[in-house]
Queue: 3 jobs
Job 1
Amino acid sequence: MELCIQDLSKKYTLKTALDGITITFGGSKIHAILGENGAGKSTLVSILSGSLSPSGGKIFIDGIQTHFVSAADAMSKGIYIVRQRPVLAENLTVLQNILLGTGIFTGKKKTEKIKKQLAEIDPGIVPDEKIKNLGGNRRFYTSLAAALIYEPKCLILDEPSAFLDKEEREKLYKLLKTLAQKGMCIIVITHSRAEAAANADTVTVLNEGKLSHFYARASDSLADRNFFTEKSAQIVQQTNSGTQHKICLEISGFSCRPKNRPPVTDAGLQAYYGEICAVTSPGDSSLKTFEDALCGMEKDGLSGTVSFFSAQQKKTAIKAADLTPCFLRKNGTAVIPSDKTYRASNPSLTVAEMLSVYTKKDAEEKALDLIKDAAIEITPQQSVSDLSGGMLQRLILARELSTNPSLVIMCNPMQGLDAASQKRLCERILSLVSDKKAVILIGAEDFPLTLCSRVYTLESGILKLSFSKQAG
């Protein structure tokens, strides 16, 4: 399928979301759409998938002008979209959710086809597992399988890598390339310039509702210095003052062996007040194991010792197996997990409900304070599902920092953020360091490691110190 739009626009009373966009998305290719928050990406794919009507312009499928009266109409013409936060029935299983979309609830042939599709996407997914027990990655896989079962001619993916680690993203793009080779037109929204250049055939950049750049060869986008806007200025590099900081956290002999995930073996790590400690991983899926274990969310085969040190260096040591989210909070630790949508919040909550989990009274007043602190234009009554990835992360960070923690653990903090949001987050992290907080980054992809005092590398489940700034 070739999908072409001409002079497409979407105007609201106080804002123009799209302004005269003309693009052709050819078949047998992967097309990446990039742009900062508010650039018009989501508006564009909502129009292409039939869930939003344009204010003007034309849409052509294989040279024939068309229009969509609904999402169902777009699907009937072969266009399917997989949302970043798919709407799924929480109390139904993966298989039942997919069957729900087909309207067929029995039939061995259909069931076997779905199971085969799921296995191709993620061999570890259990068809009979209820959605409410799944993380963001497998919710995405469920939605993707539900779309692919119809053999679409055009597949639209809204920030598909938001919940995926590096290894999972590589597997996803391998699948997408296979589908493109079979003739499918694939459109991917992403914030990652490097991801688009490495995996897409073309790159389209939107800026404030207008077509900013188009690259017929995706790799050309990396060489263009004018790719980003002025908002994406470089981060001011932190200098090493040479001050010897006090230790905040130490883990030793830290091992975790989950049943269905790669293990972490005999890890050791130290984090200091007034410093950033990063844990990187070159495509190692054991990074998620390390995150869950350190954040008290994984108990299988967990051993070792975790020691917390107050600012006065009073030590509290516990067995790793006794580590829980509650213990972390009581000992001055704030956690921002990699799954910010379903672990740190939930799309079904209001903003006030999400922000007031640590407050039993005056929830709305607390929410207003945190919204102001995060500098976001939203009301407490609005749904969390209305937030972009960057807005959600800023609110979660504001909520966690409101507890005045000594240690802040941030997991995959840069993932899913546009360039301006990444810059803003880096500046916020540096302000934490200036306030003598200890910061641990688990999954530091796209984070400038020159800002870190210690960098650990996790590879094949083994954690090694690869860089440390020396005092003096």
Job 2
Amino acid sequence: MKLYVKQRFLTLLDNFDIYNDQGQALFHVKGVFGIGHNFEVYNKYNELVGEIKQKFPAFLYTFEIYKNGRYEGYIKKEFTILKPSFEIDYKNWRMNGDIFEWDYEIYQGREKVAEAHKELFKLTDTYSIDVYDESDAVDVVMLVVAIDAVKCSQRK
């Protein structure tokens, strides 16, 4: 399953859609006003399918992941000098690649779950995501949104 994230230019809150390769919006990500970056993820039927909540203090870059109102795990930016990395406590997943250049893969064991790539030469941030099992799409979207929130926070 191929997904595309195209963020809107100059928005007050982080609100954007995630499309399939036919241009249909499959998910809507809504920024929730509060301390830190918090998001709600809706499916194409406008049903809440997940939440991403940044833990306080915000500078630690830890995001908790919720599905159906239940805590499922977290993603946390690790403080490293040379190469940025993330600790993931979610579905036994791990990440490889250059996360801050938006060229990385998500694995469960030796099996590749998804890939994310930033598309160059676009006015707004645009990413393509390959999800290999459609049932993982919501989970992959939530991780990608959390990583993007860390990137945006560090640019400020």
Job 3
Amino acid sequence: MATDAIVRVSYQTVQGKSKRAVNGASIPVTLNLRNSATGSLSVTGLYTQNDSKNPDAGRSIIGIGGDRQWGMGKLDSQFLISQVNDSNGAKGGVWDRAAMKLGGDTSVGLFKFSGSYLHAGESFAGAKEYGTGVGKDAMSFATSVAPSKSLAAGASYQSAQDTTGAAKGNRTVTNAQNVAFTPIDSTKLSFSRTTSELTTAKGNRSTASTSGFQFSSTAVKKVALRSSMIMKTSDAVGDERGFSAGMTTTAIDRVNLEMGYATLENKAVGQQTSTDVKVTATPMPLVNVQAAYSGVDSTVKGASTKTNVAIQTTAIANMQIQASAADSVTDTTRTFQRGLSLTSTPTRFAKFVAMFSQKGVNSRDDVTKSAQLELTPLKNTHLAAGYKYAETGPSVLTIHDYSAQTKQWDFLSFAGSYRQRDLNTANAPDSTAVSVSLAPAKLFAITGEYVSNPEDKLGAVQNFNTTSVGMKTKVGSVGVETNYLEKNDYRTAQLSNEAGVNLALPVFGHGKLTTGCKFGRMLGTVDQESMTYLLGYSHSIGSDFSLSFTGYYTQYLQTKVALPDKDDVSAQASLVVKF
């Protein structure tokens, strides 16, 4: 981290929701010993828990690293060693539990040179955090030269050997060469060749080579050309040859055209040809059109095509229209999707949205149609009504939505919604929600809410009803908040309720002390009760920094008998810094 960095740390547990982390804690540390224009030196450390349930099952990593710069050259290095606190954590010697990285680069005249070396022991425990891998020895060298502005060449050598696992003893050597020629600024040609040789621990060898040519040019005004050719040979997967060519042009005003053609030959696809065309156009102001087509014909996989068309327009005042169609066809399957939407704001207090969607495979399709009208007849008053028709196979669901929200006076607000469902294959209950807030005095507020058959985040109807009331007030400098909630799970014939009171007292200037209790009860075959007590403190420093801590203690009872083995103690802490 930079010496002037600001850290934000937040730790929070929510009673009944938070779960113990599977991976445990992780504590990284970096200490800068030297930092100057010519080099730096630092010590790093890391401690992590492998198992959050076992504090002793941890691993630690310590290392030293830095860089040194002189003239046109630079050298960087890092050495790390790990220790794992388990029966297998210390297996092998120091070199097996260590990792080392060396690298450098320099320039001599027109030439640039670079090299690197990596060692990662088979028992090194910091592969993920430091990106070294495990059980690997690797080295690389590279050089490049640019004798002129239009010509550049390069070559590289890489060697890697596995020292653990199923691939132990395998060694891979890769050589690469490339040449790039730029006769003019708008045209570039490049040639490359790569050879790779794999030698197994048993002495078996397999080779692979790739040769390629690439061409790109924008020499013609409003036209970009591209082409490439590639040839591969491999002892393992056989030969492969590929060719591609393409063009992008804006020669026609307000039209962008992309075209491509490619051939590929290998064992997987046989002989394959592919074409693609994409057009983006603005035929008239406020109208955008996009169309695309791609086709593939393979002697092994058969033929397939994909077509997409999309249109968007705002040519009509206060109205946006979007339409789209997509088809994908193979020898045995046709997948399609259609969509149409309209959004209109004819006046400043009205908005209308309509939508149609169809998607399917072969002769099977799903259809969705919807419309919604939103009105704002008065300031802080919103009315809405909607309709939705969803057909999925034999199932047909029809939904009517109505909602209202108003706050004509500062002391009174109201919100309500009603959703009516009609499902042809099963019973679909309706949903209702009503909430009221009344604050007749500045220091006094009452809230109430009723919810019937709400939906979860996935849209599934929950079969229960809830009723809640709450009150907020101040007695001198003490804030008082009470609430009561009753839940009726009518499907399982379970009734539960919850009542609570919280107090907040200002202390120490910018601090606040909170305390409270909550009593819950569930009535059913066996009565269950819970009592939760909380105590917390929060402190603010200005408007940008706040710290809070709250502790909870919950006691459970069954048929009036305490269950001490289920008692729960939890805490919640948070640190907030605004930047």
